[in-house]
Amino acid sequence: MKDLTYIIPTRIESEDRLKNIITSVTYLLKNIPEAKVIVKEVAEQNTFKFRALPEIKKYVEIDNLTHIFEQSSDELFYKTRILNDLILLAKTNVICSHDVDVVYPIKSHQAAYDLIKEDKADFVYPYGCGVYQYQVDYPIEVFTSFLESGFDMRVIVPHCRTESSTIGWTQFYSKEQVINGGMWNENFLSWGAEDCEFYFRFNALGYRVARVNDWIWHFEHSRSHNSHYHNPKFMDNHNLWQWLREQDKGSLIHYMQQQNYWKERVQSARS
């Protein structure tokens, strides 16, 4: 999977988030060492560099890891903007946007990657829709055992419960096609409905959206307003999503053509 970049936006707001990003980044670097991983942290403090990276280096080489830090005191985490920043930074034809709090089988990564490389899909969700989520209770002792075991899933199985899975967490896509179709909608701020809009729009525009029907492990974490309904922008996001989901293909194309952020991104990609 040499033609693949994982892009990971983050703000490490809690000890849970710290454990989770150490887990997910180490898992990727250990199991898919030929791929690139870019982490962009937007926060007041450079927590990844000083707390996550030393732990990751205990377990894996970091030659293919890039960490970008953008200092910001903004209360809201602008995930869609960061994802678009990283899409343009990626030098590979296949990109995987990846939340910090999930892992899933390497065969699912390979299957999703192959579908895009073989031109059988433009976007791939590497887990099933339905009951394909293992929600993981992840205290420090389980975290330590999981990493020290080399990611033996038997370590976390006793701490899992099954939950539904739909369209969040992680997506593989063609860099060319995600740019052509509007990228992530930067009118969605902080948390809420951006994943729904992304999935809906690329389906509605006629892109080939596929799935790998396998499990995903989602690690528990405390939630700030940037990952909760208390997000002050949640209702704005929700209302925009409700309006967009009623639009037909022609209306969506017209809407995207009016977005200055997308025009600027496309110009940057082509320059």
If strands are numbered along the chain, what order do they take across the biggest sheet? 3-2-1-4-9-6-10
Number-wise, the strands total 11
What Rg, in angstroms, do the CA atoms define? 18 Å
Question: Helices and strands, in N-to-C order?
Answer: EHEHEHEEHEEHEEHHEEHHH
CATH superfamily: Spore Coat Polysaccharide Biosynthesis Protein SpsA, Chain A
Which overall shape is indicated by the principal axes computed on the Cα atoms? Answer: globular
Strand fraction: 15-25%
Named CATH topology: Spore Coat Polysaccharide Biosynthesis Protein SpsA, Chain A
Structural class: alpha/beta
Helix fraction by DSSP (H/I, runs of at least 4): 25-40%
Largest sheet: 7 strands, mixed
Low-confidence stretches: none
Average pLDDT figure: 94
Instruction: List the total number of helices.
Output: 10
Main CATH class:
Alpha Beta
| CATH second-level architecture | Alpha-Beta Complex
> What gap, in angstroms, lies between the N and C termini?
27 Å
